[in-house]
Amino acid sequence: MKAFLSSFLLYTILLCIHLWRPTPVTANSMQNETDQLALIAFKAGITHDPLGMLSSWNDSLHFCRWPGVHCSRRHVHRVTILDLFSYGLMGSVSPSIGNLTFLRTLVLQNNSFHGKVPSEIGGLFRLRVVDLSNNSFEGMVPTNLTYCSEIRILNLMDNKLEGKIPEELGSLSKLIGLGLSRNNLIGKIPASLGNLSSLTTFSAAESINLEGSIPEELGRTRINFINLSFNRLTDMGYH
Known about the structure:
alpha/beta, 8-stranded mixed sheet, 2 helices, 16 strands, globular
């Protein structure tokens, strides 16, 4: 499991380095308030900020310089990265996050977010990294994320998600890493995941109620690390 977590962390770091550029703040960047208002609404959904990490999310500082926020170099008023890893935040994720239409990296890992993953995230077509792991998100695995066809990393581990693994995940053709471990998943692993030709890392361990065989279609992927332990899987169709 440590190897899997290290793999996800490595992928996330490399992609963030690739996507991140220093953000100059010019007069033109003050002309568009869409992303600033979305971030303010996001902050309003936070009920507890024990480290005061969002205390500077106010008019005293340009929003592109707020902690955890990075903006595009070309479109300097548009947020491309929201990285709140281990900020200790508690609350729900505002639907306003769907207004961050230039967002490419969303990292909320290791906080205490609860409630459902907002369906509005499905409209963020530029997303490449989505890491919502180690929170308390509830409801079904969000199929709306499958509209984000650029996603490379989807990490939903350590939440309270339930239901089946959506067959629609098989449409994310650029997906490299998929983390679903330690949720309340049931049913079979969909054969459609075999369509993920770029997939190298897959974990759905400790979901307890996954059953059936590991689909042989996974052999079409590039998986070099897979963890499906502590489930009710039987036949190993995948080799």
